[in-house]
Amino acid sequence: MKTLRFKSLLIACLLLIIADSSAQMIKTPSPEREKGQTDVLRLAVAPIPVVRVAFIGLGMRGPGHVESLVNIPGVEIVALCDMLEKNTKSANEMLVKAGFPKAKEFFGDENAWRKVTALPNVDLVYVSNRLETPRSDWSSGDEGRKTCCN
């Protein structure tokens, strides 16, 4: 029995040595940074007391994201957008049941999301749409807000 354990341990060690010796770091080309640019690994910014969030896409995954964010202190849902009115109304009902005020509703038009991204009182636009939709289509402009696509 001890011999079997010893042989198993020896084989495992040999496999680890072989795997380690054959592993190589993947090298990818990256452009040179402009003078003064640094990475953001240790980036820290002052916290915002309230983060105002707008949601685009309330079909399959969107309502779950709304429900998750209402459980985070300091989050305020200010706008809800979907092609279907029922999805927008349902998400707003969820907000009210959770004790939050109703959010502005946008629906019925495939370009309604543009109205949401133009709102001045939004810090974060949370997009939860079909996975095949190009993410570059959901730009929130240069108003200083961030876009999160899921």
Write a structural description.
By secondary structure, the chain is an alpha/beta fold. The protein has helices at residues 2-22, 62-69, 85-97, 112-117, and strands at 51-56, 75-82, 104-107, 124-127, 146-149.
- Low confidence ranges: none
Percent of residues in beta strands? 15-25%
Termini separation comes to 52 Å
Mean pLDDT: 80
Shape: elongated
Show the helix and strand layout.
Elements: H1 2-22, E1 51-56, H2 62-69, E2 75-82, H3 85-97, E3 104-107, H4 112-117, E4 124-127, E5 146-149
Parallel strand pairs: 1-2, 1-4, 2-3, 4-5
Give descriptors for this structure.
alpha/beta, 32% helix, 150 residues, 5-stranded parallel sheet
Quick take:
This protein has helices at 2-22, 62-69, 85-97, 112-117, and strands at 51-56, 75-82, 104-107, 124-127, 146-149. The protein is an alpha/beta fold and 150 residues long. The chain has a five-stranded parallel sheet with strand order 3-2-1-4-5.
